Amino acid sequence: MNNVMMPKIAGLVEEMTGLRFRNKRASAFGSHGWSGGAVDRLSTRLQDAGFEMSLSLKAKWRPDLDALELCRQHGRDIARQWALAPLPETTQKTAPVEETTTCAAADLGPKMQCSVCQWIYDPALGEPLQDVAPGTPWSDVPDNFLCPECSLGKDVFDVLATEAK
């Protein structure tokens, strides 16, 4: 459609761009008339959203049986490529050491709970996937922090209520 993405696709990609994807893969494909620019734009936008991109595939005009077979083969090739790609290295997670004194935990401030999904941020543990080091109080957590479960921002977090003793 005039060298641009279809409006529904453009809206979806716009929403996805705000999310910060990690360790996700994507590939753009589509059929086109004269220029084929929409597939390139889609590929660029997916890359901007944080996807690891594979080669894009373009077919001219209305795909015939040969073009559809190329699409199927392209899908198989990508699946094989992704399946055989080495997994990212993971570090051994050690069990968190329990604080024996409540004084040290109190210095870090309260635990915070996401009001949407109930995920709990513990300052003693931090959030390593978002480069928030253990021992980081909530006030020092960056404003661009997103809940690891529901991907909403800091403004949906409340102080975790503690039981009365």
Automatic annotation (TrEMBL):
<dbReference type="GO" id="GO:0010181">
    <property type="term" value="F:FMN binding"/>
</dbReference>
<protein>
    <recommendedName>
        <fullName>Rubredoxin</fullName>
    </recommendedName>
</protein>
<keyword id="KW-0479">Metal-binding</keyword>
<dbReference type="InterPro" id="IPR008254">
    <property type="entry name" value="Flavodoxin/NO_synth"/>
</dbReference>
<keyword id="KW-0285">Flavoprotein</keyword>
<dbReference type="Pfam" id="PF00301">
    <property type="entry name" value="Rubredoxin"/>
</dbReference>
<keyword id="KW-0249">Electron transport</keyword>
<feature type="domain" description="Rubredoxin-like">
    <location>
        <begin position="109"/>
        <end position="160"/>
    </location>
</feature>
<dbReference type="GO" id="GO:0005506">
    <property type="term" value="F:iron ion binding"/>
</dbReference>
<keyword id="KW-0813">Transport</keyword>
<dbReference type="InterPro" id="IPR024935">
    <property type="entry name" value="Rubredoxin_dom"/>
</dbReference>
<dbReference type="InterPro" id="IPR024934">
    <property type="entry name" value="Rubredoxin-like_dom"/>
</dbReference>
<dbReference type="Pfam" id="PF00258">
    <property type="entry name" value="Flavodoxin_1"/>
</dbReference>
<keyword id="KW-0288">FMN</keyword>
<comment type="similarity">
    <text>Belongs to the rubredoxin family.</text>
</comment>
<dbReference type="InterPro" id="IPR029039">
    <property type="entry name" value="Flavoprotein-like_sf"/>
</dbReference>
<keyword id="KW-0408">Iron</keyword>
